[in-house]
Design goal:
alpha/beta, Alpha-D-Glucose-1,6-Bisphosphate, Chain A, domain 3, 4 strands
């Protein structure tokens, strides 16, 4: 299973991938442009994962690394890991 994960510049850059690995998931691809924690959220208008535009880089990464343009799971966390989303 291929997972694309973005912390959207939040603190989950280490916690979430490590947690996924602890559950046996090994094919985790991060969105490098959004891996740097920053309260300015320089790549998004809003760091809310429910806002489609906030997920644009993750969607692009999923298309880039996926088989036939798809990955199996696309997930993100809010800046303080209060919410985790997966689709």
């Amino acid at each position: 299973m291929k997972i694309v994960y973005t912390p959207i510049h939040g603190t989950g850059v280490e916690l979430i991938p490590a947690s996924l690995r602890n559950f046996g998931f090994t094919n985790i691809v991060n969105v490098p442009e959004q891996d740097i924690p920053s309260g300015d959220f320089p790549t998004v208008e809003s760091p809310n994962p429910e806002v489609t535009s906030a997920m644009a880089l993750a969607i692009a990464k999923a298309k880039e690394v996926g088989e036939v343009g798809r990955c199996n799971v696309l997930c993100s966390a809010t800046n303080v890991n209060g919410r985790f989303t997966a689709s």
